[in-house]
Design goal:
Helix content is 31%, strand content 12%. With 368 residues, it is of the alpha/beta class. Strands 3-2-1-4-5-7-6 form a seven-stranded mixed beta sheet, with helices on both faces. Strand 2, helix 2 and strand 3 form a beta-alpha-beta unit. The longest helix is centred in the C-terminal third of the chain and has 24 residues.
C-alpha cells in the first residue's frame, strides 16, 4: 500500500477515501483534541499538533516523518484541508493575515520540505477570490499559493468541484489542488454521477438514499427550542421560511426578513428526494438550519455521517456539537476515493511504462 501523511485530518473523511483507493495513512495530525480522539478510537496513528507551530519548531519537517515511521522516499502523498473559515466570504481582503488563513502556506512549506510524490489540498470556493496581505500587490491568495507549489518543483492543477458529481448525496462545492513532484499526468477525476442519466445508478444520490433506513430511536441530535420547533412544524418537506404565513415569517425572521439574498437556509426543511445541501457545523441554528425532511428536528449526527459517507462503525469522540463540527468540516469519503484512485492509476501506469522499456542495447552501425 502507498503511504501518506494527513494534515488537518479532522474526522478523516478525505483519508478514508484515499485508503479505500489503496493509499494508507502513516500519520494523521490535527489541532482539535476531539478530532485526534476520534482518529485514535478508529486505530489511526494520530497526534495532536498545531501545524503552524510544527513548521516553526522544525522547519525541515522531518519530525513528521519520524512520527509516521517512514522514510522520505516512501512518502507517496501529503493530504489536507487547512481551516477555511478565513476564506468563507468571497472578496474580503487579508484572509491570509489571519492565523488560520496562513496555514495554507504552512501546508505548502511542508510539501516543499518533504517532497511527496503527490499532494492534495482542499478548501472552500471563497479562496478563489481572496486577496492577500502577504505583499502590497493586492495579489490573490490562490496565485501566491500556486507560485509556492510550483517553486517547490510541482506540476499543479486546481479545480472547483461539487461532491454530488462523485456519488456523494450532498451538494458541496470545494476547490481541489493536486500536485505531482515528477510532473506526471495528474488530473481532477471526471464526474461519475449526473443529475440526468439513463442509468439510475449513475444519477445523483439523494438524502433519502443515505438516511431512509436509519431507525429514529437510534438518532442523536441537537434539539430545537420549543418556539423553533413549533415554527418548523409549519414548514413542508423541501421548504423554508418563505412557506410560512407572512405574519409568522416576519416575526420568526426578525431583521433578516428585510435583508437581501435568498436566505434559503433559514428554517429550512430538507427533501428526501434531493441531494442534501452542504452540511453546516451547526444544523440547528436559525440561519444554518438543516431540518429533517419529516421529523421536527435537525439531521442527526449519524445522518450527517451517512451524508459524508462514513461507515456506520466509525466512532466519533466528543459532544454532539463537536461531532457536528467534525462532520460538517469533513471531506466526503467518495471525493477522497475518486482522487486516490486517480493517483494510484497514474502511479501504476508510470510503473507499467517503466517496466516495459527495453534494456539498452548497443548497435554497431559499421558491422564487419
Amino acid at each position: 500500500m502507498y503511504k501518506s501523511i494527513s494534515l488537518f485530518s479532522g474526522a478523516f473523511g478525505l483519508d478514508l477515501g484515499l485508503e479505500a483507493a489503496g493509499i494508507g495513512t502513516a500519520l494523521a495530525v490535527d489541532f482539535e483534541k476531539d478530532c485526534v480522539e476520534t482518529l485514535n478510537e478508529n486505530i489511526v496513528n494520530a497526534i495532536q499538533g498545531d501545524i503552524g507551530q510544527i513548521v516553526k519548531d522544525d522547519p525541515s519537517c522531518n519530525s513528521l516523518l519520524k512520527k509516521a515511521g517512514i522514510k522520505k522516499k516512501e512518502l507517496f502523498l501529503i493530504s489536507g484541508g487547512p481551516p477555511c473559515q478565513s476564506f468563507s466570504t468571497a472578496g474580503n481582503r487579508g484572509f491570509d493575515s489571519d492565523s488560520r488563513g496562513s496555514l495554507i502556506y504552512d501546508f505548502a512549506h511542508i510539501v516543499n520540505k518533504l517532497q511527496p510524490r503527490f499532494f492534495i489540498m482542499e478548501n472552500v470556493r471563497g479562496l478563489l477570490s481572496a486577496i492577500s496581505k502577504e505583499n502590497k500587490k493586492d495579489e490573490k491568495v490562490i496565485d501566491i499559493l500556486l507560485k509556492k507549489f510550483r517553486k517547490a518543483g510541482y506540476k499543479v492543477t486546481c479545480e472547483l468541484i461539487d461532491a454530488v458529481e462523485y456519488g456523494v448525496p450532498q451538494h458541496r462545492d470545494r476547490i481541489i489542488f493536486i500536485g505531482s513532484r515528477d510532473h506526471e499526468d495528474i488530473f481532477i477525476p471526471k464526474p461519475s454521477h449526473f443529475k440526468i442519466h439513463q442509468k439510475p445508478e449513475l444519477r445523483w444520490k439523494t438524502l433519502g438514499d443515505a438516511i431512509e433506513d436509519l431507525k429514529e430511536k437510534d438518532q442523536v441530535y441537537s434539539k430545537y427550542s420549543a418556539k423553533r420547533k413549533e415554527i418548523m412544524k409549519m414548514i413542508p418537506e423541501g421548504g423554508n421560511w418563505r412557506d410560512l404565513p407572512k405574519r409568522i415569517a416576519r416575526k420568526a425572521m426578525g431583521a433578516a426578513y428585510e435583508a437581501q439574498g435568498g436566505r434559503t437556509s433559514y428554517y429550512r426543511r430538507l427533501s428526501l428526494n434531493m441531494p442534501c445541501p452542504t452540511l453546516t457545523t451547526a444544523p440547528g441554528q436559525r440561519a444554518t438550519n438543516l431540518g429533517h425532511p419529516t421529523k421536527d428536528r435537525p439531521l442527526s449526527v449519524r445522518e450527517y455521517a451517512r451524508v459524508q459517507q462514513f461507515p456506520d462503525d466509525w466512532i466519533f469522540s466528543g459532544s454532539t456539537a463537536s461531532i457536528y463540527k467534525q462532520l460538517g468540516n469533513a471531506v466526503p469519503v467518495g471525493v477522497g476515493k475518486a482522487l486516490g484512485e486517480m493517483f494510484v492509476a497514474v502511479a501504476e501506469q508510470a510503473h507499467e511504462v517503466r517496466s516495459k522499456k527495453r534494456p539498452y542495447r548497443k548497435i554497431d552501425i559499421n558491422p564487419a
